[in-house]
Design a protein that fits this description.
Blueprint (H helix, E strand, L loop, with lengths): L5 E6 L30 H7 L11 E5 L3 H10 L6 E5 L5 H12 L7 E6 L3 E2 L2 H16 L3 E6 L10 E4 L11 E7 L4 H7 L5 E11 H11 L1 H12 L2 E3 L2 E3 L2 H5 L6 H6 L5 E6 L3 E2 L4 H7 L8 E9 L5 E12 L4 E5 L4 E5 L6 H10 L10 E4 L2 E8 L3 E8 L7 E3 L3 E9 L2 E5 L2 E5 L4 E4 L5 E4 L6 E9 L8 E4 L13
Parallel strand pairs: 1-2, 1-4, 2-3, 3-11, 6-12, 14-15, 15-16
Antiparallel strand pairs: 4-9, 5-13, 6-9, 7-8, 7-9, 8-12, 10-11, 16-17, 18-19, 19-20, 20-27, 21-28, 22-25, 22-27, 23-24, 23-26
Helix pairs in contact: 3-6, 3-7, 6-7
């Protein structure tokens, strides 16, 4: 690690509920490819836009335990091996996450610069983005806590604002001390703020030395550092992951780095950034940054349009027809449809909370559920039965497991399956099937070089995913909990 080494810290938390029904707790927006011009996810784009920065080191990523295999797979797809994927057992906002990353970064005796980024932002002008980061490195080396303020393009009420001590000059790359942070304003106040060149949007991106942010955290919020140290000292190496100690991390205050440090420190510096930034916080903001046709429509999937303008129209499965629409959002997935006025898209998160309150599963989970071995999709279900499509990656295997309350039929539709039942193995090919009786110890594997697809028909008195007892697992899931196939 060089003297001027730069370690990206990518924060992968958050559920992105305002982009429901595409983004949900089980598979939030940072793991989705939302840009129609690229197949890269927001997380992958976050990492790849850093390529070319001087002194760039491998990233540290922090994510929810339930998303760990998604993160690892998406990094593998872009040929990136993180120096650490740290698993948060519970969400504690950005201050504890950054404290853990800083402690991990200095654990080998180095003191690198940390570039803290959210995994779910979009930046269009990568050249300008990197230029401003290079300016920021100078301030960070001098012991300043640098944050990047976005030059406002409109009177946004969904962002916080940063006030500099003087008017900011974007072209020169000059950082200024921070006067104060302002919480999300109302419309009237926002319109006043954007007329004053001292004010920028708070992007939530930071650049500082690991030692400097730790010193300020210890001075201003010492309990965060103490609990995070304990959580890391008692961490559990789990394959390619570091799992933080639950009790220690749970004791951390749930607080943002802005409140814990940036609003109190005298070391804050704001650098202006105008690089086509968006936090992709709503369907409207996604429409703003997306490629549109001559009528202002952003179209993705099986969509037919007639006499419609300024809409965001996306279909994942069924044919979507838009006739005489204007300024609308229409999103179709395999289990939910959203129709919204574009100006009301900020309120989608309220609908998700209502769905969760009513116990409606579509509020949190997709029909397609990802696992380290592949994924499964619930096709149809009844009171005592359900049908799933299961896809298993080449050379991957489900755990050796048993169910107390359900039996299963497996029908191979593509590829080759290795079936283990009560210690006996058999190979099944397309159009062949097998029956897994209740209480049978079994395992499904894909020994081939192409993906395995099969239809699973479950029947029994209880069909939830917590009816799984594991005996052996390639992905280290036995020591966690006997849940989640």
């Amino acid at each position: 690690m060089t003297v001027n080494s730069l370690v990206p810290v990518i924060l992968c938390g958050g559920s992105g509920t305002r982009l429901w029904p595409l983004s949900r707790e089980s598979y939030p927006k940072q793991y989705l490819a939302l840009n129609t011009e690229t197949k890269k996810t927001l997380l992958q784009q976050t990492n790849e836009r850093l390529v070319g920065l001087e002194g760039l080191e491998k990233p540290i990523l922090l994510c929810n335990e339930d998303h760990r295999f998604i993160v690892a797979e998406q990094m593998r797809e872009i040929n990136t091996t993180p120096q650490a994927i740290i698993l948060e057992p519970i969400g504690r906002n950005t201050a504890p996450a950054i404290a853990v990353a800083a402690l991990q970064a200095i654990s080998k005796g180095h003191d690198p610069l940390l570039l803290v980024l959210a995994a779910d932002h979009e930046i269009q002008n990568i050249t300008e983005f990197q230029r401003v980061i290079e300016f920021g490195k100078t301030y960070a080396q001098q012991g300043r806590l640098v944050t990047f303020g976005i030059i406002p393009s409109s009177a946004e009420t969904g962002y916080g604002y940063i006030e500099a001590t003087e008017a900011l000059c974007q072209e020169k790359g000059i950082g200024l001390p921070i006067e104060r942070f302002i919480e999300k304003p109302n419309k009237n106040k926002a319109e006043k703020l954007i007329k004053d060149s001292r004010f920028t949007w708070n992007s939530g991106m930071f650049l500082f030395k690991a030692s400097v942010i730790l010193n300020e955290l210890e001075r201003l919020s010492p309990e965060i550092v103490n609990y995070c140290k304990t959580a890391l000292e008692e961490d559990l190496a789990d394959l390619d992951f570091l799992r933080l100690d639950m009790e220690s991390f749970k004791s951390c205050p749930k607080v943002s780095i802005d409140i814990a440090v940036m609003e109190k420190t005298k070391l804050g510096t704001v650098l202006p950034l105008n690089a086509g930034w968006s936090d992709v916080g709503s369907w409207k903001s996604l429409w703003d940054t997306s490629k549109k046709n001559n009528d202002g429509n952003c179209v993705d999937g099986r969509v037919i349009i007639e006499n419609s303008k300024n809409c965001y129209l996306k279909s994942e499965h069924r044919l979507l027809v838009a006739l005489g629409l204007e300024n609308l959002i229409a999103i179709e997935t395999n289990d939910a449809i959203l129709i919204a006025d574009k100006e009301h898209s900020q309120h989608v998160g309220k609908i998700v909370k209502l769905l969760e309150k009513e116990g409606i599963p579509e509020g949190k989970t997709h029909r397609k559920i990802y696992r380290p071995w592949g994924h499964y999709t619930t096709i149809v279900s009844g009171n005592r039965w359900q049908v799933k499509l299961i896809e298993v990656k080449p050379n991957a295997s489900l755990s050796l497991q048993m169910h107390h309350h359900r039996a299963e039929h497996w029908i191979i539709v593509k590829g080759t399956a290795l079936i283990e039942k009560n210690g006996e193995q058999q190979i099944l090919s397309e159009n062949e099937s097998t029956f897994i009786p209740l209480g049978c110890k079994h395992r499904l594997s894909n020994p081939g070089l192409m993906k395995l697809e099969l239809i699973e028909v479950q029947s029994g008195a209880y069909l939830n995913e917590d009816d799984i007892i594991r005996f052996d697992d390639s992905y280290g899931r036995i020591k966690k909990m006997n849940t989640k196939k």
